[in-house]
Amino acid sequence: MKDLEKYGVFSKEVRPALFDYLPIDWSTVFGNNNGIIVEIGFGSGEYLQSYAIKHPEKNFVGFEVSITSMKKAHKRVESLENVRLVITDARFGLREFFGPKSVEKVIMNFPIPWDKKSHERRRVIVPEFFETLSNVLVDGGTFELATDVEWYAKQTMETAKEMGFEVVEFLENPDREIKTRYEQKWIKYGRNIYSLVIRKVKHIEIERLIGGRHEMPHARSVVAEEKLPLLHNKVFKEGKKVVVVKGVYKSTGNDAYLIKVISSDGEFQQHYYLVAYPEEPGSKEWIIKLDSASNPYRTPAVKWSVSVLADFLSSEEEQGK
Length: 321
Ligand SMILES: C[S@@+](CC[C@H](N)C(=O)[O-])C[C@H]1O[C@@H](n2cnc3c(N)ncnc32)[C@H](O)[C@@H]1O
Fold this sequence. Notes:
InterPro entries: SAM-dependent_MTases_sf, tRNA_(Gua-N-7)_MeTrfase_Trmb, tRNA_methyltr_TrmB_bact. 27% of the residues lie in helices and 30% in strands.
């Protein structure tokens, strides 16, 4: 894998899907073993920039889901050797890209609380998030939250205690050295600010969806070609895995088909393409695999999408029916 691709179009962007092995060995990314601080939802990047300049002896990894924020923040941190940015849902990224006891501190400034019942699924700070923290934080490592939403701060503190964390600090209107864009806005509007610091006291093992070598899943099957159009809009479910086929497209040049898939592992959803084509022209044996231009994380649902589609397409004789 060429480093240029692995590190994305932005010089400080890291694209974990292109790494051969996960969790990432961050010491090779930064070229040193300095302690790691993670910021979730860095927005325009002011906080990350100021913090990283103040602490050149630490490495910083920021997560965002907004590409607009990524572009703005990247301009700020471009020249900083100790910062890397990742465009991924941090709930997934913190668990999958960091090994046990590898992060000193996780920071979250002014997250959207998603208070409506229908939006609850988007919330970052949920019990599973504390399980991830209990694994990836070093012993005594901390999580810091700043918010303008009192119930959110208090609920986070209560859940943290239930999940075995120690509360180090809970302050109303703290005088924070670095103020984020949202913080400045809320202060101007006269809103109260709450800050919470909790410390890990107990390490737990967690299950990661991916891990180890990031291989390309593929399957071989005796395919009944007439079954391919039947895949359209098909939904396959097994446990937390869901695979939905959104489209099936036949190539004009040969017998290959492109299959548009959305798969979910619980809350984590990915969009990508699979390809299906005869091993030799005219052969009944087909290969079904990820399209080379698609690069989803090889989660259980992604691996399963290849095998479940291969089974579906398999001719009845092959299945012994
Ligand atoms: C209200 S803004 C706060 C931005 C910045 N921290 C500040 O205080 O100015 C929340 C940010 O979190 C990002 N975000 C929301 N959910 C996220 C997730 N699951 N993973 C990473 N970033 C997320 C949003 O895109 C948005 O930029």
